[in-house]
């Protein structure tokens, strides 16, 4: 995929990732009450759509089914392990600011890879890419709230969130080069997103779990 065709999605990725800087103070009271439900819905939406727009096209064309499903299950396991290390029942165990930014950038890289592959598979606009933008917005809110709690000012928030979003943009750029090995990264990303959604269903409060299940069920009905 040519870089010029990715440019609108790169700009939207940065926009949705940085909007929380402007909204974080105003939305902080609401987010403390309802943010976990929003995160569960966003994660489940992008996880469900990734099955149909990323995983299935790869498994039908590029990869052995057993190997591909193994990568998805590895991604699920990695997501569960990572979330239990950084989070307790939906409560962020906030690390230092730049470590958080680096961790989010690593988390975003395979999502960027998967996004480009979904754009290629659908020849442009697709529901996964749009759901990933909403996921970026919610991830940005989670990160902004955690970093604000650590005392970061608005300019520092901008640098940290920009760095984190750049992980996804880098994944999009690398994937546009057409390297075949990146299909494996995309399947790991699908598994990780499913793992985060399953974590919402099984370990968070009942409201978050029900929201995640309803979104996944809705996605399966649509597709």
How would you sum up this structure, described in words?
By secondary structure, this protein is mostly helical. Helices cover 86% and strands 2% of the residues. The protein contains seven helices and two strands. It has helices spanning 3-61, 65-86, 97-121, 127-149, 154-176, 182-203, 206-222, and strands spanning 87-88, 91-92. The chain has a two-stranded antiparallel ribbon. The model has no long low-confidence stretch (mean pLDDT 78).
Give me the secondary-structure topology.
Layout: H1 3-61, H2 65-86, E1 87-88, E2 91-92, H3 97-121, H4 127-149, H5 154-176, H6 182-203, H7 206-222
Short description:
With 223 residues, this protein is mostly helical.
Tags for this model:
mainly alpha, single chain, globular, 2 strands, two-stranded antiparallel sheet
Query: What kind of oligomer do you see?
Result: single chain
Poorly predicted ranges:
none
Helix content: over 70%
Distance between the termini: 25 Å
Overall mean confidence score, pLDDT = 78
The H/E string reads: HHEEHHHHH
Strand content: under 5%
Number of strands: 2
Tell me the Rg in angstroms: 16 Å
| Overall geometry | globular
Number of helices: 7
